[in-house]
Backbone:
């Protein structure tokens, strides 16, 4: 076990899952800590392939049968042989080799794969081992992994993510909301000295995204794509205006939609749809697009990550952070749906959480003194939707406040 490894919510779940007799595939953007998590969990692997290494990758691409021969050479003494493949998507043929080995003897091997992109696998129709595999995802840190300051309660009132932490394991340092908005929640970034984070984030955006995208997609006009990336990150958290971005980036709407799909395929972004559970006919349904992490968003937009960005316009960043937190928790729990509500009349609610037969409207306000006025749209929504019985205003108040009978303002660390 790595003594420098900080505890992750997903590690106990992954530890249980890896023991099951399936092929396990762990996806997530780079710097989310996939390799660190696996190294911490799997100390007895018989083979560990790092396909990010060009030499290792080329060895398997030029002779796919190499993998089968090397696995079969391992002496089998009754216990499953653990084989880990990092950046497995870079050599898609390895999935076919795993199927051959798995189908021959399901008890001999336990394969664990991880990767930072599903683009090539999706577009080439690669073998994702249906009926043989379990798919998992690792995301940037959630609030329970990186708590607020120790004097604040962390009781969750919207989407609880239960976690019995081992008190002997090191944890990520607690921090305030301003730092989260300034640098994001990628574990590979926030563990760096604060003076280095901006530069590393810039390199992450310029080098990693370029490397990943050039490898995963055939971008004909690279300058146009860089313009698109800057625009997509600048407008992160807003409804996607394909026409406007198409004009500014100088490429077709079809290409813009393809670029957005690419960002989702490499796990650096996701879409949030408009709410459809209302009887109102004049609802907006255009999706909103979010970068998976605010630090990455700043760097992709060409901004120098830091608290100056937050002080300039904190409200939209705070709204995005709350949405990211809710989205990550839902995907870890593998249930629920996140959407937003906006009517042409002007009525708007930042997030609608559909979870376990409940519909929970959530507004986000960068204020320490919430008022009844902040709850007005939530109250109207609850009157209209029977499954919605209570809503929340997420803000920076020090303690929960009942704004209306069915609307509570809560501190950001209690979402």
Residues:
């Amino acid at each position: 076990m790595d003594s420098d490894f900080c505890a992750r919510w997903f590690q106990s779940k992954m530890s249980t899952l890896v023991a099951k007799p399936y092929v396990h595939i762990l996806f997530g953007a780079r710097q989310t800590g996939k390799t660190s998590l696996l190294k911490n969990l799997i100390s007895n692997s018989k083979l560990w392939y790092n396909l990010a290494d060009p030499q290792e990758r080329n060895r398997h691409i030029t002779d796919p049968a190499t993998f089968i021969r090397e696995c079969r050479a391992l002496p089998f003494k009754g216990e499953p042989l653990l084989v880990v493949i990092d950046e497995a998507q870079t050599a898609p043929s390895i999935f076919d080799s795993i199927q051959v080995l798995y189908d021959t003897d399901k008890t001999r091997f336990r394969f664990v794969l991880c990767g930072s992109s599903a683009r090539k696998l999706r577009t080439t129709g690669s073998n994702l081992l249906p009926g043989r595999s379990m798919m998992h995802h690792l995301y940037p840190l959630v609030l329970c992994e990186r708590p607020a300051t120790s004097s604040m309660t962390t009781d969750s009132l919207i989407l609880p993510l239960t976690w019995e932490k081992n008190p002997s394991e090191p944890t990520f340092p607690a921090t305030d909301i301003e730092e989260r908005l300034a640098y994001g929640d990628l574990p590979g970034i926030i563990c760096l000295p604060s003076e280095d984070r901006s530069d590393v984030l810039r390199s992450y955006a310029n080098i990693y995204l370029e490397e990943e995208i050039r490898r995963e997609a055939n971008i004909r006009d690279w300058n146009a794509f860089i313009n698109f990336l800057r625009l997509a990150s600048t407008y992160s958290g807003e409804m996607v205006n394909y026409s406007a971005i198409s004009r500014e980036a100088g490429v077709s709407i079809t290409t813009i939609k393809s670029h957005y799909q690419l960002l989702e395929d490499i796990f650096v972004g996701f879409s949030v749809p408009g709410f459809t559970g209302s009887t109102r006919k004049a609802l907006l349904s255009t999706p909103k697009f979010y970068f998976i992490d605010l630090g990455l968003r700043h760097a992709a937009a060409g901004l120098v990550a830091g608290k100056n960005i937050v002080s300039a316009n904190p409200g939209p960043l705070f709204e995005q952070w709350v949405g990211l937190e809710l989205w990550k928790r839902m995907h870890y729990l593998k249930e629920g749906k996140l959407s937003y509500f906006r009517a042409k009349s002007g009525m708007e609610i930042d997030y609608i959480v559909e979870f376990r037969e409940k519909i929970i409207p959530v507004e986000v306000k960068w204020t320490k003194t919430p008022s009844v006025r902040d709850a007005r749209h939530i109250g109207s929504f609850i009157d209209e939707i029977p499954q919605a019985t209570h809503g929340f205003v997420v803000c920076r108040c020090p303690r929960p406040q009942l704004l209306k009978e069915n609307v509570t303002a809560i501190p950001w660390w209690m979402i």
Notes: The mean pLDDT is 90. The first strand starts at residue 23 and ends at 27. Residues 76 and 108 are 7 Å apart (CA to CA).
